[in-house]
Amino acid sequence: MSANPPRLLATMAAHLPVPRLPVLLFVFLAVHVHVPASHAIPPSLPTIYDGSICSESFRCGGVSISYPFYLTDYGYNYSCGYTDLKIFCQGEGPTGIPVISLGGENYAVQKIFYDTHTIILADSDVFVGGSCPAVSHNVTFDETWLHNTSSNANLTFFFGCHLGDSMTLEFDAYKIKCANFKSPPHAGPGDSFVVMTDEHDRYLEQELARNCSMIVTVPVNHDVLMAASNQQNFRSGGYGDVLRHGFGLEWERATAVGCHQCEESNGRCAYSQHSEFLGCLCHGGKVGNPDCEHIVPATASTATASRKSS
Ligand SMILES: *[C@@H]1O[C@H](CO)[C@@H](O)[C@H](O)[C@H]1NC(C)=O
Ligand SMILES: *[C@@H]1O[C@H](CO)[C@@H](O)[C@H](O)[C@H]1NC(C)=O
Ligand SMILES: *[C@@H]1O[C@H](CO)[C@@H](O)[C@H](O)[C@H]1NC(C)=O
Ligand SMILES: *[C@@H]1O[C@H](CO)[C@@H](O)[C@H](O)[C@H]1NC(C)=O
Ligand SMILES: *[C@@H]1O[C@H](CO)[C@@H](O)[C@H](O)[C@H]1NC(C)=O
Asked: Taking the model in full, what pTM does it have?
């Protein structure tokens, strides 16, 4: 999934405007004369950019992707969109699957609602393992950009469980009953249970927590869970449908002050990989700072760099 570095460098070089050569020279010199760190140039945008990275929208499978989401495959060290809302399109044409990585784990993007700022995601793990998939990690994400929605409920899995013989009957109703069920590799042998998290089940959850080797809690859609949990087959496959249905996350608009100004002026915020707001990508390949009312002159950064290096 990760881009091949030589190809990436080649792509970057191909897109590097020729007048930026003095900047590269300056960086080269700076490294060799040991300029103190405090004088290091902060990460910056070029003064012009390839406007196609900010095009109105991309299609990946059935999902239309547009700002503040962005595609990964351009190879620049800045985004036209919010750092964490980076989408990788797996496959092509109608079968393409948009994938987002949160906390180092991959999720399929099922829908994006731009009006309510909500995305519907499903853990990529739940599409394997037939009707009885296993989740192997909690859902974690950086709250700078994303938030749980109120339509989510918690579903908790207990794997690698060894309960006392006298207890098995009491807990039987919560046991996953699929002939071909495979618990996650890290869980070790033992029974598996799935429990809807609510107050009444405190005792149950505590006992399971004491006697199982692995606990995973994931968000699912509350209404979908309620409907499915009433069905006979909930623990023999119904829960898998609930997982595949996905969960919602909301994204926050313009967390950085400069980014807010940028968007107000119809620009799009550029961020570094480290979530720093870098400037405003404006119409016609021009860069503004902080907004499109303040366009950075096309030669400014190279001029500054050559002055410093002489
Ligand atoms: C991107 O790379 C260029 C040149 O390699 C550098 O001048 C610039 O500061 C970098 N920008 C970011 C945001 O890291
Ligand atoms: C999931 O989070 C809970 C606490 O919130 C923790 O006890 C559990 O170990 C985590 N599971 C995994 C697989 O990291
Ligand atoms: C789900 O669990 C988390 C902690 O693991 C908690 O903060 C959150 O409020 C729970 N959500 C619901 C809907 O109960
Ligand atoms: C969990 O293990 C403890 C001993 O480690 C045992 O006393 C308890 O009955 C077990 N709980 C269940 C539900 O089997
Ligand atoms: C979001 O909710 C899920 C479960 O509903 C929970 O496991 C997770 O910890 C929550 N994440 C945050 C960042 O609150």
From this structure: 0.81
306 within 8 A of 26, measured Cβ to Cβ: yes
Verify whether ligand 2 is closer than 6 Å to residue 139 (CB atom). no
| Cβ of 77 less than 6 Å from ligand 2 | no
Ligand 1 first shell, C-beta below 6 A:
23, 43-44, 77-78, 272, 278
Q: Which of 235, 238, 189, 179 is nearest to 212 (CA)?
A: 189
- Nearest partner of 246 among 123, 160, 143, 132, judged by Cα: 123
Q: Identify the domain containing residue 265 by its residue range.
A: 256-309
pLDDT tens sequence across 122-148? 999 999 878 999 999 999 999 989 999
Question: Which two tokens mark 265?
Answer: 């002026």
Quote the tokens at residue 275.
């979530």
Distances (CA, A) of 289 to 188, 201, 268: 54, 54, 11
Q: In this structure, is residue 28 part of a structural domain? A: no
Cβ atoms of 71 and 81 closer than 8 Å: no
Q: Give the residue whose CA is nearest to atom 10 of ligand 5.
A: 148
Query: 139 CA distance to ligand 5 centroid (A)?
Result: 6
- Residue 7 in domain: no
| Phi/psi-derived region of residue 97, left when phi > 0, alpha when psi is between -120 and 50, beta in every other case | beta
152 lines ligand 5 (CB under 6 A): yes
Distance in angstroms (rounded) separating the CA atoms of residues 13 and 9: 6
Check if 154 has its Cβ closer than 6 Å to any atom of ligand 5: yes
Ligand 5 center from residue 123 Cα (angstroms): 14
Dump pLDDT digits (tens) for 5-59: 444 444 444 444 444 444 444 444 444 444 344 445 567 888 888 888 888 888 9
Torsion of CA 47, 51, 54, 59, to 10 degrees: -160
* Domain count of the fold of the chain: 1
